[in-house]
Amino acid sequence: MNEQDIPHETMNAQVSPASSQQGEPDGKKIDYWGYIVLSAGVGALIWGLVSAVGTGWGFWEYTSGLKGVAGAFLLGLGAILIGAVQGWRVRKAINPPPRARRWVGMVVALLYVGWVGTFLMAALTVPAIHDVSTDLADPPAFQTLALRTDNLDNIPGADDSDMRGLTPLQRWALVHQKAYGDIRSVRINEPVPTVIAKAERLAKARGWDVAISLPEEGHFEATDTTAFFQFKDDVVLRVRPSDTGEGSIVDMRSVSRVGISDLGMNAKRVRAFLADLTGTVTAAP
Description:
Layout: H1 8-23, H2 32-56, H3 62-89, H4 100-125, E1 131-133, H5 168-179, E2 186-188, H6 192-205, E3 209-214, E4 219-225, E5 232-241, E6 248-256, H7 265-278
Antiparallel strand pairs: 1-6, 2-6, 3-4, 4-5, 5-6
Protein backbone atom coordinates (compact mmCIF):
# COMPACT_ATOMS: atom_id res chain seq x y z
CA MET A 1 0.00 0.00 0.00
CA ASN A 2 1.32 3.42 -0.90
CA GLU A 3 0.33 6.94 0.03
CA GLN A 4 -2.19 7.08 -2.79
CA ASP A 5 -4.06 4.10 -1.35
CA ILE A 6 -4.57 5.79 2.05
CA PRO A 7 -8.05 7.23 2.33
CA HIS A 8 -8.16 11.02 2.17
CA GLU A 9 -10.15 11.25 5.43
CA THR A 10 -7.47 9.26 7.28
CA MET A 11 -4.74 11.59 6.14
CA ASN A 12 -6.74 14.59 7.27
CA ALA A 13 -7.24 12.98 10.66
CA GLN A 14 -3.52 12.41 11.05
CA VAL A 15 -2.46 15.83 9.84
CA SER A 16 -5.08 18.05 11.46
CA PRO A 17 -3.85 17.74 15.09
CA ALA A 18 -0.32 18.76 14.15
CA SER A 19 -1.46 21.58 11.96
CA SER A 20 -3.75 22.74 14.75
CA GLN A 21 -0.84 22.87 17.18
CA GLN A 22 1.46 24.71 14.77
CA GLY A 23 -0.84 27.11 12.97
CA GLU A 24 -3.69 27.72 15.38
CA PRO A 25 -2.46 28.24 18.97
CA ASP A 26 -4.81 27.60 21.89
CA GLY A 27 -6.50 30.58 23.57
CA LYS A 28 -4.26 32.52 25.97
CA LYS A 29 -4.73 31.92 29.66
CA ILE A 30 -5.85 34.86 31.78
CA ASP A 31 -3.00 36.29 33.86
CA TYR A 32 -4.84 36.20 37.19
CA TRP A 33 -1.73 36.78 39.31
CA GLY A 34 -0.71 39.75 37.20
CA TYR A 35 -4.11 41.36 37.73
CA ILE A 36 -3.93 40.62 41.47
CA VAL A 37 -0.50 42.21 41.86
CA LEU A 38 -1.49 45.23 39.76
CA SER A 39 -4.72 45.74 41.69
CA ALA A 40 -2.98 45.36 45.05
CA GLY A 41 -0.15 47.75 44.17
CA VAL A 42 -2.36 50.49 42.75
CA GLY A 43 -4.97 49.87 45.45
CA ALA A 44 -2.36 50.33 48.20
CA LEU A 45 -1.32 53.70 46.78
CA ILE A 46 -4.90 54.92 46.42
CA TRP A 47 -5.92 53.62 49.85
CA GLY A 48 -2.98 55.30 51.54
CA LEU A 49 -3.44 58.64 49.80
CA VAL A 50 -7.18 58.70 50.43
CA SER A 51 -6.59 57.89 54.11
CA ALA A 52 -4.13 60.77 54.46
CA VAL A 53 -6.03 63.35 52.40
CA GLY A 54 -9.37 62.37 53.94
CA THR A 55 -7.93 62.98 57.38
CA GLY A 56 -6.73 66.40 56.31
CA TRP A 57 -10.18 67.27 54.99
CA GLY A 58 -11.80 66.18 58.23
CA PHE A 59 -13.72 63.17 56.87
CA TRP A 60 -12.47 60.98 59.75
CA GLU A 61 -10.24 61.09 62.82
CA TYR A 62 -6.49 61.06 62.35
CA THR A 63 -6.27 57.68 64.09
CA SER A 64 -8.52 56.16 61.41
CA GLY A 65 -6.37 57.78 58.74
CA LEU A 66 -3.22 56.30 60.23
CA LYS A 67 -4.85 52.87 60.33
CA GLY A 68 -5.69 53.26 56.66
CA VAL A 69 -2.09 54.18 55.83
CA ALA A 70 -0.87 51.16 57.79
CA GLY A 71 -3.35 48.84 56.09
CA ALA A 72 -2.30 50.14 52.68
CA PHE A 73 1.33 49.59 53.66
CA LEU A 74 0.62 45.91 54.40
CA LEU A 75 -1.30 45.59 51.12
CA GLY A 76 1.66 47.05 49.26
CA LEU A 77 4.02 44.60 50.93
CA GLY A 78 1.68 41.79 49.89
CA ALA A 79 1.73 42.98 46.28
CA ILE A 80 5.53 43.02 46.25
CA LEU A 81 5.77 39.59 47.85
CA ILE A 82 3.18 37.96 45.58
CA GLY A 83 4.76 39.52 42.50
CA ALA A 84 8.21 38.30 43.48
CA VAL A 85 7.00 34.76 44.21
CA GLN A 86 5.04 34.60 40.97
CA GLY A 87 8.04 35.84 39.04
CA TRP A 88 10.19 33.10 40.55
CA ARG A 89 7.55 30.44 39.76
CA VAL A 90 7.28 31.28 36.05
CA ARG A 91 10.95 32.10 35.44
CA LYS A 92 11.50 28.89 33.43
CA ALA A 93 8.03 28.56 31.92
CA ILE A 94 7.92 27.93 28.15
CA ASN A 95 5.06 30.39 27.73
CA PRO A 96 5.27 32.71 30.77
CA PRO A 97 2.45 35.22 31.38
CA PRO A 98 3.07 38.88 30.49
CA ARG A 99 5.26 40.61 33.03
CA ALA A 100 4.02 44.17 32.49
CA ARG A 101 1.06 44.05 34.88
CA ARG A 102 3.05 42.36 37.60
CA TRP A 103 5.97 44.78 37.32
CA VAL A 104 3.75 47.86 37.27
CA GLY A 105 1.93 46.66 40.37
CA MET A 106 5.19 45.90 42.16
CA VAL A 107 6.78 49.25 41.27
CA VAL A 108 3.73 51.24 42.40
CA ALA A 109 3.60 49.24 45.63
CA LEU A 110 7.33 49.74 46.17
CA LEU A 111 6.99 53.51 45.78
CA TYR A 112 4.24 53.65 48.38
CA VAL A 113 5.92 51.22 50.78
CA GLY A 114 9.17 53.17 50.47
CA TRP A 115 7.42 56.45 51.21
CA VAL A 116 5.74 55.08 54.34
CA GLY A 117 8.96 53.30 55.25
CA THR A 118 10.76 56.63 55.64
CA PHE A 119 8.33 57.57 58.41
CA LEU A 120 8.71 54.18 60.06
CA MET A 121 12.49 54.57 60.06
CA ALA A 122 12.12 58.02 61.60
CA ALA A 123 9.89 56.56 64.33
CA LEU A 124 12.66 54.09 65.19
CA THR A 125 15.40 56.72 65.37
CA VAL A 126 13.74 59.56 67.32
CA PRO A 127 12.11 59.58 70.76
CA ALA A 128 8.33 59.35 71.07
CA ILE A 129 7.83 62.98 72.08
CA HIS A 130 6.01 65.81 70.33
CA ASP A 131 7.23 68.90 72.19
CA VAL A 132 10.61 70.42 71.30
CA SER A 133 12.10 73.49 72.97
CA THR A 134 15.40 75.33 73.08
CA ASP A 135 14.93 75.93 76.81
CA LEU A 136 14.07 72.82 78.83
CA ALA A 137 14.09 74.50 82.23
CA ASP A 138 11.76 77.32 81.19
CA PRO A 139 10.09 76.53 77.81
CA PRO A 140 8.47 79.48 76.02
CA ALA A 141 4.79 79.66 76.96
CA PHE A 142 1.86 80.03 74.59
CA GLN A 143 -0.39 83.02 75.19
CA THR A 144 -2.79 82.89 72.26
CA LEU A 145 -2.57 79.29 71.04
CA ALA A 146 -3.58 76.67 73.60
CA LEU A 147 -1.09 74.01 74.66
CA ARG A 148 -2.67 70.56 74.39
CA THR A 149 -4.01 69.25 77.70
CA ASP A 150 -2.33 65.84 77.29
CA ASN A 151 1.06 67.30 76.47
CA LEU A 152 2.88 65.37 79.22
CA ASP A 153 0.92 62.13 78.85
CA ASN A 154 2.72 59.07 77.49
CA ILE A 155 6.22 60.48 77.95
CA PRO A 156 8.76 57.64 77.46
CA GLY A 157 10.54 56.20 80.47
CA ALA A 158 7.66 55.54 82.84
CA ASP A 159 8.77 51.90 83.17
CA ASP A 160 12.48 52.61 82.88
CA SER A 161 14.41 51.85 86.07
CA ASP A 162 16.78 54.74 85.33
CA MET A 163 13.87 57.19 85.35
CA ARG A 164 11.95 55.77 88.26
CA GLY A 165 10.64 58.53 90.50
CA LEU A 166 10.91 61.24 87.85
CA THR A 167 7.91 63.34 86.93
CA PRO A 168 6.68 63.37 83.32
CA LEU A 169 8.21 66.83 82.89
CA GLN A 170 11.58 65.60 84.15
CA ARG A 171 11.43 62.53 81.89
CA TRP A 172 10.59 64.74 78.94
CA ALA A 173 13.56 67.00 79.63
CA LEU A 174 15.90 64.01 79.99
CA VAL A 175 14.72 62.31 76.80
CA HIS A 176 14.77 65.62 74.93
CA GLN A 177 18.30 66.46 76.03
CA LYS A 178 19.59 63.04 75.00
CA ALA A 179 18.00 63.17 71.54
CA TYR A 180 18.20 66.87 70.71
CA GLY A 181 21.13 68.19 72.69
CA ASP A 182 22.04 70.55 69.86
CA ILE A 183 18.77 72.48 70.13
CA ARG A 184 19.49 75.37 72.47
CA SER A 185 18.83 79.08 72.93
CA VAL A 186 20.58 81.21 70.32
CA ARG A 187 22.02 84.72 70.36
CA ILE A 188 21.33 87.24 67.61
CA ASN A 189 23.13 90.58 67.44
CA GLU A 190 19.94 92.50 66.75
CA PRO A 191 17.35 94.19 69.00
CA VAL A 192 14.27 92.28 70.09
CA PRO A 193 11.70 94.04 67.82
CA THR A 194 13.89 93.45 64.76
CA VAL A 195 14.19 89.73 65.54
CA ILE A 196 10.44 89.32 65.95
CA ALA A 197 9.75 91.21 62.72
CA LYS A 198 12.19 88.97 60.87
CA ALA A 199 10.63 85.87 62.42
CA GLU A 200 7.21 86.99 61.23
CA ARG A 201 8.48 87.43 57.67
CA LEU A 202 10.10 83.99 57.70
CA ALA A 203 6.95 82.37 59.07
CA LYS A 204 4.74 83.92 56.41
CA ALA A 205 7.21 82.88 53.71
CA ARG A 206 6.85 79.30 54.97
CA GLY A 207 3.06 79.51 54.78
CA TRP A 208 2.54 79.45 58.54
CA ASP A 209 -0.59 80.99 60.05
CA VAL A 210 0.53 83.78 62.36
CA ALA A 211 -1.53 83.86 65.55
CA ILE A 212 0.15 86.80 67.27
CA SER A 213 3.23 88.95 66.78
CA LEU A 214 4.35 91.38 69.49
CA PRO A 215 7.72 92.87 68.47
CA GLU A 216 8.07 95.13 71.49
CA GLU A 217 7.28 92.29 73.89
CA GLY A 218 9.45 89.77 72.07
CA HIS A 219 6.62 87.28 71.59
CA PHE A 220 5.48 85.44 68.48
CA GLU A 221 3.13 82.50 67.81
CA ALA A 222 2.18 80.69 64.61
CA THR A 223 0.88 77.38 63.29
CA ASP A 224 2.47 75.18 60.65
CA THR A 225 0.20 72.71 58.78
CA THR A 226 1.49 69.56 57.09
CA ALA A 227 0.59 68.70 53.50
CA PHE A 228 -1.40 65.44 53.42
CA PHE A 229 -2.76 64.83 56.91
CA GLN A 230 -3.07 68.57 57.60
CA PHE A 231 -1.55 68.02 61.04
CA LYS A 232 -1.10 71.31 62.88
CA ASP A 233 2.02 72.10 64.91
CA ASP A 234 2.09 75.25 67.04
CA VAL A 235 5.21 77.40 67.35
CA VAL A 236 6.11 80.05 69.91
CA LEU A 237 9.16 82.33 69.95
CA ARG A 238 10.41 84.21 72.99
CA VAL A 239 13.01 86.90 72.38
CA ARG A 240 14.67 88.73 75.28
CA PRO A 241 17.53 91.20 75.51
CA SER A 242 20.85 89.58 76.38
CA ASP A 243 22.36 90.14 79.84
CA THR A 244 24.93 92.49 78.38
CA GLY A 245 22.29 94.48 76.52
CA GLU A 246 23.94 93.66 73.19
CA GLY A 247 21.74 91.59 70.95
CA SER A 248 18.93 89.20 71.84
CA ILE A 249 18.46 85.69 73.19
CA VAL A 250 15.98 83.65 71.15
CA ASP A 251 14.08 80.63 72.41
CA MET A 252 11.73 78.60 70.26
CA ARG A 253 9.23 75.85 70.96
CA SER A 254 7.29 73.65 68.53
CA VAL A 255 4.47 71.37 69.70
CA SER A 256 2.29 68.93 67.73
CA ARG A 257 -1.43 69.19 68.48
CA VAL A 258 -2.05 65.44 68.09
CA GLY A 259 -0.08 62.22 68.32
CA ILE A 260 2.51 60.81 70.68
CA SER A 261 5.56 60.96 68.41
CA ASP A 262 6.20 63.77 65.93
CA LEU A 263 8.69 61.60 63.98
CA GLY A 264 11.31 64.28 64.52
CA MET A 265 9.40 66.99 62.63
CA ASN A 266 9.37 69.56 65.45
CA ALA A 267 13.12 69.30 65.95
CA LYS A 268 13.67 69.66 62.22
CA ARG A 269 11.40 72.71 62.17
CA VAL A 270 13.19 74.41 65.07
CA ARG A 271 16.64 73.78 63.59
CA ALA A 272 15.67 75.05 60.14
CA PHE A 273 13.83 78.14 61.39
CA LEU A 274 16.57 79.23 63.77
CA ALA A 275 19.19 78.67 61.08
CA ASP A 276 17.32 81.02 58.76
CA LEU A 277 16.61 83.51 61.53
CA THR A 278 20.23 83.77 62.63
CA GLY A 279 22.03 83.08 59.38
CA THR A 280 24.33 80.77 61.31
CA VAL A 281 23.08 79.26 64.54
CA THR A 282 25.12 80.34 67.55
CA ALA A 283 24.21 78.85 70.90
CA ALA A 284 23.71 81.39 73.63
CA PRO A 285 26.18 81.08 76.56
